[in-house]
Design brief:
The protein is an alpha/beta fold. Helices cover 50% and strands 7% of the residues. Among the domains are: 105 residues, Ribonuclease H-like superfamily/Ribonuclease H (Nucleotidyltransferase, domain 5); 131 residues, no CATH class. The N terminus is likely disordered.
Length: 449
């Protein structure tokens, strides 16, 4: 029997597209080896394998210099790319990180050699993200991580208080608020008198001093007090780090290019009166988000200042990367993923894909359940018709469409209110009923009762 040996496929390069980065290289990053591809003609061996030791990373940089390479695209695989990225950046190369899923080649034809050649070809035709937005994204993701770590120590404080039977959480809505932290710090400092602790109550607190004093009669034990003091110290430490991170973000935002001139095109008035929320940035995030995007995303109900900045840091301000709003929602994985075979729909549920913007939009959609805006009425209608999970996803899809249109077209969003939305929905429903009645040879007549 004759066995046919399958040939290794080659990456075909077309001359129909203009090469933007003629001096571009591509690197397929691995845990123990890296495959590097340079343009053909630069050396006798355009694809070369290197190890992952530090000495070999410097050999990669030396070889790229000899080949006349100026810019490099590499996969952001785990954390293996970090040492090589630092070495290449130190040597003066422009290094671009790409998502392996977004830059994948033809399915079923994957090798390390093909991967690095494919990255090199894509990068030579101008495959690059916006570096300044990527830096802002890194800062905001780091800030979110600090918030999550700090929240863990709030739970530690709650645990220590419960073990001492101090029911502070039963009489205060937030133990990290003004009243709660005053009382906790006093307990750590040695105060044990319930009445004196209750006297620290803020005037806006719902429960009176007598109720708070009863909740603070507990069993103070040394081991639990020690755990409480440690939790408070760690909570304060993370609050300090968040403040420092805010300062760094505010400084970086000044370097971002402005899409609109605040002096000639001032910001529209705020949708609602600004209310201080926990974990909000320590700078005017709404002003910076409007300046770099040209639109005020906070005009959309449920989108706060910090949320608008987070969305911009994840998707950028150039919406031309998505041809239409449908492409944008598909990238977010918040639209139906129809699978059809033989004319029959097999499934419609959304794809499971990790996307921070989609998660943020779902949280925003959930906050609309009690809103009196048009989006709030839409969210309640979709949840009642589809169920809570699907209704929240449908509302997140609606928010994504509004965000795309605002940034892409530069138009403001105007809320029509829930009453007008309900009237318009009723008019559409009646119009559809009248049309269906006419198709059946009938006429829709309003009730006289």
């Amino acid at each position: 029997m004759t066995r046919w040996k399958r040939k290794q496929p080659k990456v075909e390069v077309t001359d129909q597209l203009p090469r933007i980065n003629a001096d571009a290289a591509g690197i397929d990053v691995g845990a123990s080896e890296h495959w590097v591809a340079v343009p053909a003609g630069r050396t006798a061996e355009p694809v070369k394998q290197f190890g992952a030791f530090t000495v070999e990373l410097y050999q990669v940089a030396d070889w790229l210099k000899q080949c006349g390479i100026k810019t490099v695209a590499m996969e952001s695989t785990g954390v293996y790319w970090i040492p090589l990225y630092q070495v290449l950046e130190e040597r003066g190369f422009e290094v671009i990180l790409v998502n392996a899923r977004h830059a994948k080649n033809v399915a079923g034809r994957k090798t390390d050699v093909l991967d690095c050649q494919w990255l090199q070809m894509l990068h030579s035709y101008g495959f690059r993200p916006v570096g300044a937005i990527c830096a802002l994204r890194s800062y905001l993701r780091h800030r979110q991580m600090l918030i999550e770590y700090g929240a863990g120590h709030v739970q530690h404080m709650q645990k220590a208080l419960t073990q001492m039977n101090l029911q502070l959480a039963q009489v205060l809505s937030d133990i990290t608020g003004s009243t709660g932290m005053k009382i906790i710090r006093a307990i750590v400092a040695g105060e044990r008198d319930p009445q004196r602790l209750a006297d620290m109550r803020d005037s806006r607190t719902k429960n009176n001093e007598e109720t708070i004093a009863k909740a603070l009669e507990g069993d103070y034990r040394a081991e639990h007090l020690f755990a409480l003091s440690q939790a408070v110290a760690l909570f304060d430490f993370y609050q300090q780090q968040i403040t420092r991170c805010d300062e760094q973000i505010a400084e970086h935002l000044k370097s971002l290019e402005s899409k609109t001139d605040i002096r000639t095109h001032p910001m529209p008035p705020a949708r609602v009166k600004k209310r201080h929320r926990r974990n909000e940035p320590g700078f005017d995030a709404r002003h910076d988000a409007y300046r770099i995007s040209g639109v005020d995303l906070t005009q959309i109900d449920s989108i706060s200042e910090s949320t608008a900045l987070t969305i911009l840091s994840e998707i950028g301000t150039d919406m031309s990367r998505w041809k239409t709003e449908k492409h944008f929602c598909s990238w977010l994985a918040i639209c139906p993923n129809n699978r059809i075979s033989g004319g029959k729909v097999l499934q419609r549920h959304t794809r499971k894909a990790p996307n921070r913007v989609a998660d943020v939009l779902r949280i925003c959609a959930q906050s609309l359940l009690n809103s009196k805006s048009a989006l709030g009425a839409y969210c309640r209608r979709m949840c009642s018709r589809l169920g809570m999970p699907k209704g929240i996803t449908a509302t997140a899809h609606k928010l994504a469409l509004l965000i795309y249109r605002m940034i892409r077209l530069g138009k403001d969003y105007v809320d029509i209110g829930q009453d007008r939305y309900e009237r318009q929905y009723k008019e559409r429903a009646l119009k559809n009923l009248a049309r269906r009645a006419k198709e059946m040879g009938m006429q829709l007549v309003p009730s006289t009762r």
